[in-house]
Amino acid sequence: MRESRSISMLAELLELERQARVQEKSAYRENSPEAYQNAGESWQIAGESYAEHLQRSKAGYAFSHSAKMALYAGNVEQGAERYSIAGLMYALAEEWDNSATMWLMSANQFEKAHLLPNAADARITAALILTDCERFEDAAKAHLAASKILQLLERYTQAADEYLKAGRLYEKLEQWKAAEQAFKSAAEQYERDHYHHKASKLYGLAAKMSYRTISPVKPPETKPAPPISSPKTIETTQTYYPPSKAPSGYGFPALWRYMQEHIYPITASAVIVLLFFMLPLTINWFHYFETSAEIEDTAANAPEAEVMPPAPLITDTNVSKHDAPSPVSPPIKRTQPQTNQTVDSDITTASKAPEREFLASAKRVTTEEQIIIPDEVDKSIPPRMPRKYQSRVYEPDDPRTIWYKQRVAAYEAILLRHPTDVAAHKELAIALCALAQPEKAEEHFLAALKFSPTDADIYYQRALCRVKCGHKQRAIEDLRIADQLAPNRLDVLLELGSIYATTDCPSLAIIVYKQALSAHPTSPELHKRLGSLYETQQKYNDALYHFQQARQLAPQDVTVHTALERVYRALGDQQNALAQQQIVQHLLEGTSQP
Amino acid sequence: MTKTQLLRKIHIFNTLSDYEIVLLAAITKKMTYPAEVTIFEENSQGNEFYIVVSGAVRISKIISELGEEALAIVREGEYFGEMALIDQSTRSATAIAHESSTLLTINRTDFKKLMYLNRNIGYKLLWGFFRTLSERVMETTDKYRGLSAMAGF
Q1: What is the CATH number of domain A521-594?
Q2: Cβ of residue A118 closer than 8 Å to a chain B Cβ
Q3: Which one of A494, B35, B51, B145 has the fewest CB atoms closer than 10 angstroms to its CB?
Q4: Cβ of A113 under 8 Å from any chain B Cβ?
């Protein structure tokens, strides 16, 4: 009895589907909205009947046809809704790929019908399903599309959530640039709804992604050992497994399992703990022996290293090492290679005579050589505070060009005698960079880093050189390393912030400047830069705060008063703006302030 | 009357948007019960939520030696068995079609999937259920107060 009932039911369903197909065909022939509408209704009835009898896959199929017919009939909203139902039916039938497609189609139609909340919902659902299907890239795109819609709807927190999900997926896919962008957008959306704590966290994540863009995590080179018991699982290609997903057949888990099986567990734990504590020590020893051996090898290969007297190192006498040097030959100081990586500013007068002699004997260079200055160099660097340490590219007839050429000759002479002299490599690289020879400069920076890999200043100087050549990402990489080696160095952070500010990442620049401000609270320059950034973002109250701080720290700075005047005007405070204008006039005329 | 129109009338779903109602309607199933047919029995496993489209349903307790004790009559537009969507407990009473009735049912598995796919629906419906539960707790408290007062006299 039951069987015959189910057969008749099935026959009924098939009949409904057949009728719908016939109507669809006739609708194509007629090609009129009414015919399409009727065909759509027939498919709708068939779909509902299938759904009632729990035949979800067929229901999904019927609803998708119904949606298509509705669209042909010109009813976009109905079509979108039916695509959604088809998506739901396929999801209930656990046909995830079909389901995701239906949801995406639904979202597209909702967008066409300007039903943005529904479109966002459909996209989010599609993203969810795509994630479950491990189609992470598509899922990320769906999340991004949803977040853009939510942004339009001014549902900023929800938009931020979607951006965050997209960012996570891109991070999983190791698409750092996209991840950075998504996290940054998420932070911006959270900021709009005043979730500043969340926003700051996400800016941090974006910065982390930015760092990974320039130094991506590479899989280890070592080939995993094949498991002993099962030859089927031996892999022919090298595969990188993140630590959390490492298969238990090899590596540390395998060692641990082996020890647990063969050694008494407590002994195993003790051995592991011991290894854990011994590892850093072993690495340090290894590094020490390796570095010593390299230095000895290089020194042994150096020509006349033992015969010649120690070579001098050229430095400036003033605090700023490379800024505005005088055309006169700079004084010289003797240093021991490797031992003195930092350059002292105090020069003993007694050492000057032999140094001058040395310079006189150094190769003379003429000013006739043409120096090629790349067009993009100065465009990439916005006008800002004088850089203490940054070397510049000068015109051929500039006396500083002659000075830098003399330096190059001098340092080349030093390196002939002492090829391992870190300071000489660094100074030569700086001089070469100033003379627009970045390739040669890179070589000497590399040489300097080989012998002194923890010298933050080398990284910093190389970053400056790279900025000049327009390699901003590589410069960021260097500055990040410099910041790790010498945390909170003001010039490093100023440069880093400046690069971010000029590469459309003002939010990252703000993070960097705030970090610098926590270490250097009395720096007017930091306040000025933060003020300018906030002003650009039209956050005038924040800008006002920082410019006021800068005014307190540098009351004679005309640019601060000018900026304050601008901000007051933007805030509608004409009285204070006028006062600032008067102060600027007085400062320019050299009279006392009112 | 379509399923969507029926669902729109139900108090618990009044926070859902039209689109959400359409999705919810897609997972409902229409059932017809002749009068005096048992829909579910006490202590049976509950998996479905029922909405009365037409007719009436009697919710009763079967007491041994005394027979059926009617607790409530659920009429058109009202619903019962909603706890089955939230937990997996057994039915606390028996439901019998008081008249020939048409019901819409929502299966727990489908409902959970829908909530997973569309978090907004899940959020709104769970709030709806909490509101219902809160109202029922208040009703029970009132009844208890009434009983306490009567016992005092």
Answers
A1: 1.25.40.10
A2: yes
A3: B145
A4: no
**CA–CA separation, A113 vs A79, rounded Å?**
10
Comparing CA positions, the residue from A96, A27, A109, A100 lying closest to residue A67 is A109
Residue scoring higher pLDDT (A10 or A441): A441
> In this complex, do A91 and B117 lie within 8 Å of one another by their Cβ atoms?
yes
Tell me the C-alpha distance between A23 and A40, whole Å: 9
Is residue A408 a contact partner of residue A428, using CB atoms and an 8 Å limit? Answer: yes
Contact B19 A81 (CB under 8 A): yes
Domain, as residue range, for B135: 3-152
How much is the pTM? 0.50
Contact B27 A88 (CB under 8 A): yes
Inter-chain residue contact A85 with B22, CB threshold 8 Å: yes
Rg of the Cα atoms in chain A: 35
Give yes or no for a contact between A511 and A480, defined as CB atoms under 8 angstroms apart.
Answer: no
CB contact under 8 A, A52 and B110: no
Which of A66-80, A358-372, B5-19 shows the lowest mean pLDDT across its residues? A358-372
Q: Which residue has the tokens 């800024």?
A: A323
| CATH code (residue B46) | 2.60.120.10
Average pLDDT over residues A439-445: 88
What are A500-552's pLDDT values in tens digits?
888 777 888 888 888 888 888 888 999 999 999 898 888 888 899 999 999 98
CATH of domain A2-214: 1.25.40.10
Type and span of the H or E element at A565: helix A558-570
> How many angstroms separate the CA of residue B15 from the nearest CA in chain A?
15
Residue in A closest to B114 by C-alpha: A88
Q: Could you tell me how many CB contacts below 8 A there are between chain A and chain B?
A: 39
pLDDT digits (tens, 9 = 90+) for A142-151: 999 999 899 8
For residue A504, count other CB atoms closer than 10 A to its CB: 10
Within 10 angstroms of residue A438's Cβ, the number of other Cβ atoms is 21
How many separate domains does chain B show?
Answer: 1
Q: Verify whether the Cβ–Cβ distance B26 to A88 is below 8 Å.
A: yes
**Quick check: B118 contacting A, CB < 8 Å?**
yes
Choose the mutation target among B106, B117, B118, B124 for the interface with A, i.e. most A CBs under 10 Å: B117
Please check whether residue B106 touches A, CB under 8 A: no
Is pLDDT at A246 greater than 90 in this prediction?
Answer: no
Distance of CA A79 to the CA centre of its chain: 41
Q: Which residues of A touch B23 (CB under 8 A)?
A: 84-85, 88
Return mean pLDDT, chain A: 74
**B96-130 residue pLDDT tens:** 999 999 999 998 889 889 988 998 888 888 888 88
What is the band of A257 on the pLDDT scale with cuts at 50, 70, 90? low
* Chain A CB within 8 Å of residue B127 CB: no
Give the 3-state DSSP-derived string for A296-337, with helices as H, strands as E and coil as C: HHHHHHCCCCCCCCCCEEECCCCCCCCCCCCCCCCCEEECCC
Residue matched to tokens 């590479």? A218
Looking up tokens 């109905």 gives: A78
Q: Determine, for residues A52 and B118 on separate chains, whether the beta-carbon distance falls below 8 Å.
A: no
- Residues in B 47-86 with any Cβ partner in A closer than 8 A: none
- Please name the residue of chain A whose CA is at the shortest distance from the CA of residue B113: A92
Which of A81, A115, A125 lies closest to B118 in CB terms? A125
Q: What is the mean pLDDT of chain B?
A: 87
Has residue A327 got a pLDDT over 80?
Answer: no
